[in-house]
Structures are given as structure tokens and as C-alpha cells.
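#struct-pred
JK: can someone run the complex with adenosine-5'-diphosphate? inputs below
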Amino acid sequence: MSREKSELIEIAEKFEIEGKLENVVPHGNGHINDTYLLTCRTETGKENRYILQRMNHEVFKDPKGLMENVTAVTAFLQKKIKENGGEVEREALNVIPLREGGSYREEEDGTFWRVYRFVEGADSFDVVNRPEDFYESAVAFGHFQKLLEDYPAETLHETIPDFHNTIDRLHKFKKAVEEDAMGRASEVGEEIRFVLDREEDCHVLCDMLASGEIPLRVTHNDTKLNNIMLDKKTGKGICVIDLDTVMPGSALYDYGDSIRFGANTGAEDEKDLSKISCDLELFELYTKGFIEGCGGSLTEKEIRLLPMGAKLMTLECGIRFLTDYLEGDHYFKIHRPEHNLDRTRTQFAMVKDMEDKWPEMTGIVERYL
Ligand code: ADP
Ligand code: GN1
Ligand code: MG
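RT: done, C-alpha cells with the ligand placed:
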């Protein structure tokens, strides 16, 4: 635990958690925030669990704007869930306010904290164990986007400007290569070449959004499998979590990022690249589920571009991992020295495999037009 337990308890107790706080333990495998599980017990013996998070303010430079997004989006979702007769406490994130009022706490050391109700009776997975889980996650991410269809996009803060602007990611990457702060560029010549060979690809979605060929929507932008809670009993995607990057974006970002992570036959940080490939059965399942979840809102153009969304989100993520490696690993949490390089290599191997399977991928998508 990076912080003393006593310190975490002191922070947690500033929020309206119910019952006596009995335990605080690190939780989950996110790359960005520090996440802890809180267990409380009321006088009647009822257990209440919560998620305490230290928001990463190096990544999210405007925690206030971020929390304004989160509170507004969750309130919007809760209203719709209630209207549809759903369970507000499990189907949307619930922000637990501070006792003194407000949705987050800034500590004297400049760290930012928030608490969510723990989504009970559900799991989030770091790998696809059962194909049906991946399908259900697709339906839920598609449905999430559908629910936000009439959300006033102009009121959202851009929590990370240019988050999926692949052209901007490419520029930042080139700058990192040039500056070579850690003296690592010479070891990764092959990976640098891989990116430069695909420079034109980096423009495809950005240009189409700019020209209006594909619509700007309110999207999640970080649709990894572990950002969805699947109901333990029904297996359905019950709650979309990690709303820090909900911003205007493209449906192709959400679709693509899920394929990048979940349709890969290997882990994001697998060292043995022979284990990395794009599983076409999972690709098809996710495609089917996402289109269903979007409930008819995707345009024909968007559907035709799904394979491109998958390839570009994977390429972009690889570029981001490699940029972070070159800059000295200050963005993504790492657990071993070459972690970001290993992650880069899996992403590029996945891109290469998608390129080899392009006719099959486009053929699958056409079946859902
Ligand atoms: P990060 O931005 O670091 O990925 P997340 O918000 O995704 O942070 O949280 C990390 C992990 O914590 C998630 O993958 C999930 O397993 C768990 N988690 C987060 N919020 C909740 C919640 N409200 N209920 C249950 N589990 C949660
Ligand atoms: C981060 O926060 P987390 O672990 O769900 C990152 C995503 C990357 C992903 C790669 C805010 O997601 O953009 O695709 O790691 N989130 C942010 O695993 O940068
Ligand atoms: Mg996450």
C-alpha cells in the first residue's frame, strides 16, 4: 500500500460512508488512479463497501472539472435507469459526497480523493475468460453510448485534451524520440520504424471527424474490459465504470479500444509475442454486441470503419506506451522496468495481426450492416 492505512482511513472518514470503517485494501488493476476497497459495518451488522480513489492529477490536470463531469453524467444515467425501472445503486456509479459537502476532497499535500459506492454482486475482469463475458461487455458499452446520445456534449469538460487525437499522439511520440530523455531510442529502432511506417493511418479517423463524415458523440473513451462490472448471477454488463474520460469522441474509439484489449489472445503486457493475435471469434462477438447495444444509432459509415477503429486504437495505445517508455515511464503505472516496452510490443503485434486478417475482419463487419 503506497500510503499508510491510518492516512487512508482518515481521508475515507471525511466522506459519507455508512458504518464503522473496518478495512482498507488496495484494489483492482487500473493503470492510472490509486484504488482502495473500503469495508464498513453498521451497528445492525450490515456490511457496506465503497471504492476510495486517489485521482491521478498528473494525468487529469483539472480534477474539479473531472468531478463535475462525473457527477453530472452519473446523475443523468441514474435518471434514465430509474425511468427504465433499473437499480440505480448498481447500474450506475454512485458518488459518495463529503460530509462537509462536495464530491471530492483535496488534501493539504495536493492529492485529490473521491469515494464511490462499490458495485456489489458483480465482477470486473482483466482477461476474457468466457466469450459471453466479452459479448455482454460489448452490449453494455454500446448501450452506455446510446444512453448518452442526448447528453449535452458542450457542457462536458475535456478532461484530457486530444485524448484520442491520434495525429497529436504521433507528434508527441516524435518529440519523445527526438528528445530521447532516457537514452532509450536506440534500443527501440524497430518499434519506432513500426510507427513511422503507419503515419498515414494515424490521420484516418481524425480527418473523418473533422470533415463530419463520422459524428462526434459522447463516448467513454477507455472501454477496457476491466472498466465494466458484469453481474455475477446474470452475466450481463451491469455497470460501466471509470468515467474519467467521458468526453466528446467517436463510437470507433469505444469499439476499437475494447477490441484492442479483449480480442487479444494474450495479455496487454505479455512478453511472449507468439501468444498475441486478434481472435476473430471474439472480434465477431464484440462487433455483434456493440452494434446491438448501440440500438441502431451507428451510421453505415461508422460500421464499415469498425476494423479501422480497432486497428487505430491499438496502434495509438502502442504509440502512447512507447512514448511513455521513451520519456521515462511517468504516465502509466509500471510494475517492472521494461513494462511499457512489453506493452508497446503486444500492441504492435496485435496491429500486425489485424493487418494480416484485414479481409476477414471487414468480411465479419459487413455481415452486420
Ligand atoms: P483506473 O482509472 O486506474 O483504471 P478504475 O476507476 O478503473 O481506475 O478502478 C480500478 C478498478 O477498481 C476497476 O477496474 C474495478 O475493478 C474496480 N472498481 C472501480 N470502481 C468500482 C466500483 N464502483 N465498484 C466495484 N469495483 C470498482
Ligand atoms: C489506462 O485507467 P485504465 O487503466 O482503465 C488509460 C487508457 C489506456 C489503458 C491501457 C486515462 O486505462 O487510455 O488505453 O490504460 N487511461 C487513461 O491499458 O489514460
Ligand atoms: Mg480503469
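RT: quick notes.
The chain has a mean pLDDT of 97.
The first helix runs from residue 5 to 12.
JK: thanks, will look after standup
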